[in-house]
Amino acid sequence: MTDITTQGASEASKPFDRARALAAFKLGDSTFYWLTRVSALIVLFILGGIIVSLVIGAWPAIKTYGFDFLVTRRWAPQLEPTPILGALGPIYGTLVTSFIAMLIAVPVGLGIAIFLTEFCPIRLRRPIGTAIELLAGIPSIIYGMWGFFVLAPFMTDRFMPMVIRTFEGVPVLGTIFAGPPSYLSLFNASLVLAIMILPFITAISRDVFQTVPPMLKESAYGLGCTTWEVVRNVVIPFTRAGVIGGIMLALGRALGETMAVTFIIGNSFQISGSIFAPGTTISAAIASEFAEADGLHMSALILLGLLLFVLTFIVLAAARLMLSRLEAQAGK
Amino acid sequence: MNPIYTSRARNDKIVRFLCLFAAAFGLMWLGLILFTLFWNGLAGLNFSVFTEMTPPPGSKTGGLANAIFGSLIMTVIGVGIGAPIGLFAGTYLAEYGRHEKLSNYVRFINDILLSAPSIVIGLFIYGAVVVPMGGFSGLAGSLALAVIVIPVVVRTTEDMLLLVPNQLREAASALGLPRSHVIRSIAYKAARTGIVTGILLATARVAGETAPLLFTALSNQFWNADLMKSMANLPVTINNFVQSPYEYWRQLAWTGALIITLAVLALNIVARMLDAERKKK
After folding, report:
1. Quick check: A54 contacting B, CB < 8 Å?
2. Which of A41, A201, B97, B109 could form a disulfide with B103 if both were Cys (CB 3.0 to 4.6 A apart)?
3. Are B212 and B218 in contact (CB under 8 A)?
4. Which 3 state secondary structure label does DSSP give A266?
5. Are residues B241 and B200 in the same domain?
6. Is-cis flag, bond preceding A83, omega within 30?
7. A49 touches chain B (CB under 8 A)
8. pLDDT tens digits along B98-123
9. Residues B16 and B109 in one domain
10. Domain coordinates of chain A in residue numbers?
């Protein structure tokens, strides 16, 4: 102990070594610089890693099926010697469920956002807004469980038979809403998906609506516009790019969502025209078959994952471009 | 009254009603979910949930102790790996490379990763870690969570550092502080609350992630602290128990779901309170 204190004292009494201190600073400086730079590059490497690792995993399936993978309807992993595997069923299910989910969630979500920014009493705005943001953070498996135990039985026993009876015999609609009702169905999965992305759409579009300068809205009110006219002619045109960007972000989420749909979609690779029939999505197919897959079957599942990544990449990239245009506009 | 005025007023009223209806409709579903969760989850919430292992099929006793433990471990390690990388990457974007071309690419890719499907990240770690290592492991699960944490932290760190006024940095530089010291002792300090908020939100995000763990950590029925072996965790346990025919397993699944949701909500609320404090300053 005494040793250290005497050493410290003697060092303090020494003249300050300027060159040494500067060298230490320089070393610390460049170390920190490279630490941050390498971390930034890691972000790029992750993307590269995802693509490379998926392509390697999917390579046997790409070699065996090629382009046919995208247009084959049959999914027969047990077939000897080579299983027949086609992605058309999961792709169809992914697109249909996301489409129906957006059809429900976009109008409702925008409605809630307009309600929160324009109509809602000021005192209620914050609590309702916070509640919706908190709901956006709830893990998707909770939505899936709820869909499985509560929503699916209710919809299947009460709602579906009514709709099926109503549209029986009507061309097109009769096929879309054909029976028999099933707990595990594309429609139930879409509904859970819609409820899951609802808080997400609401939170984004509310934030976007709030970027409208109050001056613009006040001018419109000053000219005698009703609230709806202000929303339609000022708020929405001003925020169009942002709203579309937010909707596409939500679409990206719906396309890739796994846990909310896996329980109640039925994992059936058949394509029937009815939305009340079981189906599957890309992510649900991967999640439910992964445990018992091997060889070519496994490779095909990874290829499905690669397809999903490409699909969401395109949607998300478009969304980001839209949103960055809005940011540039707001920055002006 | 002028018919144009009446029709305009009427349209306004219709839209007002529709928006109110949308809000009631949306909030009703969300409220219903929370109600079901609490109703079913509270019924099975007792002390043994936290002390006993996950039960074998058909058993009438048991808890979630090993799953809760595994989830905690993997979340902590995942955030422990992901948060520093995200913090440094965000620092580069905001401090060193603010106007570089490289930063624009990193920003764009980061935004894509921020909303990439988590199942794809699970497949990535499966191919990159699980297959070479020869089996499912808690470490692979943690890495998958880290990959999800990184983009969230990069984004918030950059945003928060950009809010720090440049005069502060200039003043520090004028005193002769080297750049890295300016960042560490001035910029980080000024942006601390915001950065912590971002890390908390990232933790909340991964705490309930299920899909990536299916392919990386798997799950099991035992107490396991070995990161090289498959590790029990709450989300995958819930996933397995929900679809089982055993009443007790399903009860445990609801209880586990309630525990996760409460944890996620608590993290979110703390993050929000920190954020409110930051804005007040």
Report:
1. yes
2. B97
3. no
4. strand
5. yes
6. no
7. yes
8. 888 999 999 999 999 998 999 999 99
9. no
10. 75-331
For chain B, what is the domain count? 2
Whether A299 has a pLDDT exceeding 70, the answer reads yes
Percent of chain B, pLDDT > 70? Answer: 99
The rounded distance, in Å, linking the Cα atoms of B62 and B237 is: 13
Question: What is Dmax (Cα atoms) for chain B?
Answer: 80
Give the residue, B99 or B149, on which the prediction is more confident. B149
Residues B94 and B30 in one domain: no
* Nearest CB to A308; choose among B117, B181, B239: B117
Q: Which domain holds residue B34?
A: 3-44
Predicted complex ipTM: 0.89
* Structural fold of domain A75-331: MetI-like fold (1.10.3720)
Q: What is the pLDDT averaged over residues A244-254?
A: 90
Under an 8 A CB cutoff, do B88 and A36 touch? yes
The interface residues of chain A toward chain B in range 180-239, judged by CB-CB distance below 8 A, are 195, 198-199, 202, 226-229, 231
How many Cα atoms within 13 Å fall on the side-chain side of residue A51?
A: 9
How far does the CA of residue A178 sit from the closest CA of chain B (Å)?
A: 26
CATH of the domain at B175: 1.10.3720.10
Token pair for A218 = 């006040």
Contact A138 B264 (CB under 8 A): yes
- The DSSP element (H or E) to which B178 belongs, if any, is none
d(CA B13, CA B18): 9
